[in-house]
Amino acid sequence: MGAADGTSSGGARFSGRRVLVTGSTRGIGAGIAAGFLREGALVVLNGRSEDGVRAAADRLVAEGAPADRVRVAAFDVADADAVDAALAALHEELGAFDAVVNNAGVQRRAPLVDMTAEDFRGVIEVDLVSAFLVARSAARPMIEAGAGVILNICSVQSSIVRPTTGNYAAAKTGLVGLTRSMCAEWAPLGLRANGLAPGYIDTELNAALVADEAFSSWITGRTPARRWGAVDDVVGPALWLCSDEARFVNGQVLRVDGGMTAVI
């Protein structure tokens, strides 16, 4: 993975490497993108809105990221034609990616008996199908290069579930199976595919839940670490899974949840 000699320069694990992070305008995706930049990578930010992606890039540069290592690619990860066109253009410019992080995701909560088919399918498309589409396009040149990493951002809801999130739990559970299938097919060709399953993380997406005193108290009581997770708690494990340090880790899902899924 990465430079021809398999090493990184300047002490940064990802120097000279190219990384795509989908859904990276905010939250966990933005944190992971910033982490890769700190470690020397060239990072392509993604979101559906051109303005949103450029604003995210501007924030990273204002915070000290080198402008020449921050790229933007606005496209809908759930649109197969848009994914193939965007990835083809990126591959033409940059070559094969060394790592792709499938982070894009949405939630639409409702009891199953009240959930519309549109809301069920919509979450499946963004949270599961998009990972297949992006990984499929990214894997082709990775396979030619004989190296590359796919990291799928899963969830503790692939192991434990709550009412009103049936579509999300179904998508994230499917993503675990897809991750293992990627390993089965692509590991013999030199690729690695793993998942990272965050617990309850304090992000913009969860702002309403964090602000809900009763729910927040339940989360902190249910989590052995006795707190919500922070984005930075996820970044280190994500980068490790994409690094050479994890070169023999394949087809696994690492839970980053403060112990929530380890206890009853």
From TrEMBL:
Record carries keyword DNA repair: no
Residues annotated as domain Ketoreductase: 17-213
Recorded GO MF terms: oxidoreductase activity
Transmembrane segments: none
A Pfam family matched in the record: adh_short_C2
The UniProt record lists the keyword Oxidoreductase: yes
InterPro entries xref list: KR_dom, NAD(P)-bd_dom_sf, Sc_DH/Rdtase_CS, SDR_fam
Keywords assigned: Oxidoreductase
Coiled coil: none
Domain of life: Bacteria
Record family assignment: Belongs to the short-chain dehydrogenases/reductases (SDR) family.
Protein name per Swiss-Prot or TrEMBL: SDR family oxidoreductase
